[in-house]
Specification:
CATH topology of the largest domain: Lysozyme
Helix content: 55-70%
Function: Defense against chitin-containing fungal pathogens.
Order of helices and strands: HHHHHHH
Low-confidence stretches: none
Shape: globular
Oligomer: single chain
Largest sheet: none
Radius of gyration: 15 Å
CATH architecture of the largest domain: Orthogonal Bundle
Structural class: mainly alpha
Protein name: Basic chitinase
Number of strands: 0
GO molecular function: chitin binding; chitinase activity
Keywords: Carbohydrate metabolism, Chitin degradation, Chitin-binding, Disulfide bond, Plant defense, Polysaccharide degradation
Length: 127
């Protein structure tokens, strides 16, 4: 088990009442656990990161450190929360461009605007 698994799976498992550290594969194999962990991750701030929900609903206000790091409200911060250390601050890449394209597609389907700051290309990852 990796640190990343304990970082997410330990707290998520405690929150949903399942020992995910002993059985991390259940997130991929049990649809109920998969849904619960996804919802937990979406709704739960993991300091210093805000929750994805707070970002997308406009409840997150960036600190001075966030602003200095290029982290401004928008879909790009959600990518930063989920995958910042791997993707953010490294300029444009096809995977990130595709993700933004999918986001725009679903916004179009639902008839809602995209908002600003759609990528994390120029954001520093959260510490």
């Amino acid at each position: 088990m990796s640190f990343a698994s304990n970082y997410n799976y330990g707290p998520a498992g405690r929150a949903i009442g399942v020992d995910l550290l002993s059985n991390p594969d259940s997130v991929a194999t049990d649809p109920i656990i998969s849904f619960k962990t996804a919802l937990w991750f979406w709704m739960t701030p993991q300091s210093p990161k805000p929750s994805c929900h707070d970002v997308i609903t406009g409840r997150w206000i960036p600190s001075g450190a966030d602003t200095s790091a290029g982290r401004l409200p928008g879909y790009g911060v959600i990518t930063n929360i989920i995958n910042g250390g791997i993707e953010c601050g490294k300029g444009s890449n096809p995977q990130a461009d595709n993700r933004v394209g999918f986001y725009k597609r679903y916004c179009d389907i639902m008839g809602i605007g995209y908002g600003n700051n759609l990528d994390c290309n120029n954001q520093r990852p959260f510490a």
